[in-house]
Amino acid sequence: MQIYIAVIGGAFCPKEVEQDAYQVGREIARRGAWLVCGGLTGVMNAAAKGAKDAGGFSIGILPNDDRTGASPYLDVSIPTGIGFARNLIVILSADAIIAIDGESGTLSEIGYALRYNKPVIGLHTWDLISYSGRCADIITADDPKQAVDLAVRAARSRS
User: Fold this and answer.
1) Assigned domain for 91 exists
2) Angstrom distance (rounded) from CA 46 to CA 17
3) What is the pLDDT of residue 135?
4) Other CB atoms closer than 10 Å to residue 116's CB: what's the count?
5) CATH code where residue 89 lies
6) What is this structure's pTM?
């Protein structure tokens, strides 16, 4: 069965975050999983490039009604015309999610993933603790390889 791993993170990010995303994309491809992302710049572009460089396959779920601004490293780009609502499609398309750094859009995707019981692996991303002290179920990874190991394991355990 094909495994789909979503990589989520900011459209604008520091170089070290882009490097982590690139390595995550490479690792996803090396394991034969398919990468799903929001299809634009920053973390999404770097992960798609990593997957492409390692011979992998990537799908971008785009917010606009055309392919303008899509990462050139995507194998498939899907215009939705629904803006940030496309974040739900990214999450529902994946068996596991790797969140790298991120902004408010990434936070919304993490929320959707938790709502739909999708495993979330966090690599230098949000820590979510409620007022009452309840922690969100985000599995923390220390590096890109571990993030992908955890995501693949979590995805396989769901199938």
Assistant:
1) yes
2) 9
3) 67
4) 12
5) 3.40.50.450
6) 0.95
Tell me the average confidence (pLDDT) per consecutive run of 10 residues in the chain, 159 residues long. 96 96 98 98 98 98 97 98 97 98 92 95 83 77 97 91
Domain, as residue range, for 67: 4-145
Contacts of 147 (CB under 8 A, 6+ apart): 24, 27, 98, 100, 121, 123, 141
Residue-wise DSSP of 40-109: SSTHHHHHHHHHHHTT-EEEEEESSSS-TT--TT-SEEEE-S-GGGHHHHHHHT-SEEEEES--HHHHHH
Residues whose CB is less than 8 angstroms from the CB of residue 135 and which lie 6 or more positions away in sequence, other chains included: 127, 128, 129
**Residue 36 domain-assigned (yes or no):** yes
For residues 7 and 43, the answer to whether their CB atoms sit within 8 Å is yes
37: left (phi over 0), alpha (psi -120 to 50) or beta: beta
Taking the C-alpha atoms of residue 104 and residue 102, their distance in angstroms, rounded to an integer, is 7
Number of domains in the chain: 1
